[in-house]
Amino acid sequence: MSEDNERELTREEMRAQLEAEFQVEQEASPKTESEPEDKSEQVEAASLAADETDLPSPETEDVESDIPNHESKDHLPIKSTWQVILYSLFYFAFGTFLTVVSLNLVFSQKETGEAINLFGWVFIIFFLIGGLASLYSTYDEVRHLKNARLLDNEGVSFQATILDNWVDHYQDGGFLGRKKVHHLLYFYNDEKNYAKHSVNQSMSKTLHTGSSITVEYLQENPEVFRIK
Question: What are the residue boundaries of the structural domains of the chain, listed by start?
Answer without folding.
Answer: 81-227
